[in-house]
Amino acid sequence: MGARGERQRHLRFGRLRFGRLRPGRLMLRLAPPLALIVLAVPLAFGVLGTVLPALGYLPALGGTRLTLAPFAELLAQPGIVRSSIQALLIGLATTAVSLVLVAGFVCAWYGTRAFAFIQHLVSPLLAVPHAAAAFGFAFMIAPSGYLARLVSPWATGWERPPDWLIVNDPAGLALIAGLVLKEVPFLLLVTLAALPQVPATRAQELSQSLGYGLLAGFMFTVWPALYRQIRLAVFAVIAYASANVDVAIILGPTTPETLPVRLVGWMNDPDLSMRFMACAGAVLQIGVTATAIAIWVAMERAMHILAERVCETGRRFRRDGAMRMLAGAAMTVQALLVFGGLAILALWSVSGLWQFPDALPANLSLRSWKQSLPVLAGPLATTIIVGVAATAISLAIALACLQRENETGRTGGNRALALVYLPLLVPQIGFLFGLQLLLVAADADANWAALIGAHVIFVLPYVFLSLSAPWRAYDRRYEAIAAALGATTGRIFWRVRLPMLTRAVLAASAVGFAVSVGQYLPTLLVGAGRFPTITTEAVALGSGGNRRVIGVYAFLQMMLPFIGFVLAGLVPALLFRNRRAIRGV
Amino acid sequence: MKPLSCTIALTASLAAAAFPALAETPDPADWEAVLAAAEGQKVYFNAWGGSTQINAYIDWIGDRLAERHDIDLVHVKLDDTANAVSTVVAEKAAGRDEGGSIDLIWINGENFASMKRQGLLFAPDWTTKLPNWAFVDHETKPTITVDFTVPTDGLESPWGMAKMVFFHDSARTDAADLPDGAAELLEWARANPGRFSYPQPPDFVGSSFLKQVLIETVDDPSVLQAPVVEAEFEAVTEPLFDYLDALHPHLWRSARTFPKDYPSMSQLLADGELDITFAFNPAEASNAIANQLLPETVRSFTFSGGTLANTHFVAIPYNANAKAGALVTANLLLSPEAQARKQDPEVWGDPTVLAMDKLSEEDRARFEALDLGIATLRPDELGPSLAEPHPSWMTRIEEKWAARYAVGN
């Protein structure tokens, strides 16, 4: 090839066409359809496998004709309306509170030094499994919890805990708070990832030059564009919070339980006919989540109109100091609550007798660890094996998709993004029930492949989302130079791009592993109880049981992702100890 | 694939397909053959997993099985034993008549009755053919052969004895003020609001509390020994629900939420949130003291009119994959060594099903050496035993309870 040909080749870089497909290329070309299969096919079959039994059709259990009887039975359940409305309101309230906290914080503090500080404080919370955070929170706020112990008896006069209903309250306030603790870090990180795509700094300067306060200026100029970018993530929060099972088991109401918790109970009931009703309930759950999202969209409209009205008054809201302090304080307090809760969990796990109102245990003891560790080895191994496998598969698919995108220059746009978000937007129960029934019918339940596959459905979106931003931001001139030196695309990928993006790849892996560690429902349903993990074991303990044991489980549950992130930080430092720029330190 | 390797693969898969058929239906009367067949098997033991001490004990059993019989015991921890029943039901419906996913279930009461009725249990009588059955006290302990009024017919092997016992912290509550019966308990709760509760049914200890009150309040307890007569259900249970209506406003959290299970109640007793708790194991308090979960001042008491008592068992599903392994496990659970360890309050504290006079001197010494703990009542202090009602009562009471109290009022 002459000099001209070479130049043409790298000018056309990104749209290369190959006459002959080598295996590697074939794999790349197949990656996007593969991602589609991994995400959408189980989802579609799962929903179908849920809807058909809901209509009475499940030949394996003797249901051969379509009927609405399961729905009639469902509606006859005591307290079903209350359970459903609870799920709806909890979904909406969690999302509203989380979004207000994130929006308030970002708008009030963007571009300041405190912003970076609080951002670093909150970010690690994303990796804390929901159940561990919920346990820690329960140990903080219960009437016999740590906060009450700190102020008793000297300030409160309590020699014994007051009979106050805080955890497991019928209104679900504790559950909402517990969910908010975990959804805020998620929304914050999604928002931070979207920030570079909007001209935030310039808009901020403009609004300030017009005399607006920091908070109002950002809210009026940047937030609308930013919100458009994170809208899918917000919907995912609604779907998650309205259909959550594990946090609801720990913190949620019990008389009755929220809809998703009751559904899982029915799905496991000895009375087989309950499965039809459970599936009808799962369809109801999809309806509840869809309704919540519809209500949210209506609220978006209302907020939009309201914001416009306020904006048109021309008020500058310059005295926003108190509001800004509040926004920053709320963020800090919620991070400290989680960290405090985790510290208390760790302390309980090594405590001996620790009675109210003592602020510290009477004696320390490794008894709980000694008793638990032999029993924990199996679940721990399962957690790690499934987490590593699901992360590796997700990473391979995500990398191949992104590389394919890199070569074709097509990102797939919003449709691809919606696909990635799909498993996060459909309530887990809505398709996991059907998936489990299909797997049982195919005699393929309770095996490693099915379990890892089920985890990939939830891990892949997070790996893809966290990898795509650095991947797309990569300076492609490095690749152009390598191509000019005669390197093939394969070689460029393996020797140039991938090593330079090692940090991003490892960070995405750590996120993926953390997501896998935290999975409760897929592990429980697809694993058919045969594959206990640290998470399923921890949630099974509930919030009221032996705090030392809960401490051990929740501490381990929290340590696993933490170790993942530490490794993700250490490996590049070792690999590239003589490559300062890649190391990024 | 080459022809030779093809043949090998074919033979291997044929052998794999044929093997379960060969391993099926071991004959417990031929114990040597059972031991041989059990070797190398993986036994899935589905057992309630809510207590760390019990889980650790099952883990210890697993270690012994691995050492002595090369059996890999997997404890599948259940929230509710009904889940295991549901699995077997689903497998039967799906036509999985062999190679089922559960080999052994910790069971009694309505779950046993339901599995027996539906023909879901390994049959016929295998329990009396276990070598260690020779030590079982089936003569003086009637609940070993009649489980909640349903004859066991050798379909479930006894594992431990249970009796409802109440606990209090003598440092906080005076033993003289303690209630002696359901009626006094209601008065006590009125005087001590927020300091008593029971696990939310269908938790088995919570449901047992309902049965205790039912037996104490019903006009004629003998009707409970027969299945529920639908037309009379409301009338028979009216005193129970009147009692609960009166009790609930004075319960912990005003009965707007309930403890999850009895270990949760022990935690609440330690925290000073509850003053009276109970469990289905007379040694629960001593066990909790030994594990530093409760202070050493906790003591036990029962009702002089008697409290509910029963036996808990293990059973093998009809489609279990490792029946031989399950038989060996059931037999080990009945061994004097395992039973003595189980009765040790440091380990679990669950009373034995064995008859002391049937044991060798050496084995009897294992039991005599046990310190039952400061908070455990002596057998003669445990009071009379009340017989379990027919299982249909529990099912119907749980349903009525849920419809009445778990709908958010």
Summarize the structure.
The complex is a heterodimer of chains A (585) and B (409). Chain A is mainly α and 585 residues long. Chain A contains 26 helices and no strands.
Overall pLDDT level of chain A: 87
The CATH topology of the largest domain in chain B turns out to be D-Maltodextrin-Binding Protein, domain 2
Q: In the CATH hierarchy, what is the class of the largest domain in chain B? A: Alpha Beta
CATH class label of the largest domain in chain A: Mainly Alpha
Distance from first to last alpha carbon of chain A? 41 Å
Largest sheet, strands/sense/barrel of chain A:
none
Task: Describe the secondary structure blueprint for this structure.
The complex is a heterodimer of chains A (585) and B (409).
Chain A: H1 3-11, H2 23-54, H3 69-75, H4 80-109, H5 113-122, H6 130-141, H7 146-150, H8 173-194, H9 200-209, H10 214-221, H11 223-242, H12 246-251, H13 259-267, H14 274-312, H15 321-349, H16 367-408, H17 413-425, H18 428-441, H19 448-473, H20 477-484, H21 489-500, H22 502-518, H23 521-526, H24 534-541, H25 547-575, H26 580-583
Helix pairs in contact in A: 2-14, 2-16, 2-17, 2-18, 3-14, 4-8, 4-10, 4-11, 4-14, 4-15, 6-8, 6-15, 6-25, 8-11, 9-10, 11-14, 11-17, 13-14, 14-18, 15-25, 16-19, 16-22, 16-25, 17-19, 19-22, 20-21, 22-25, 24-25
Chain B: H1 3-23, H2 31-38, E1 42-48, H3 52-69, E2 72-78, H4 82-93, E3 104-107, H5 109-117, E4 146-147, E5 150-151, E6 156-163, E7 165-169, H6 182-191, H7 204-217, H8 230-247, H9 262-271, E8 276-279, H10 284-290, E9 298-301, E10 307-315, H11 323-333, H12 336-343, H13 361-368, E11 385-386, H14 391-405
Parallel strand pairs in B: 1-2, 1-3, 10-11
Antiparallel strand pairs in B: 3-10, 4-5, 6-10, 7-8, 7-9
Helix pairs in contact in B: 2-11, 5-14, 7-8, 7-14, 12-13
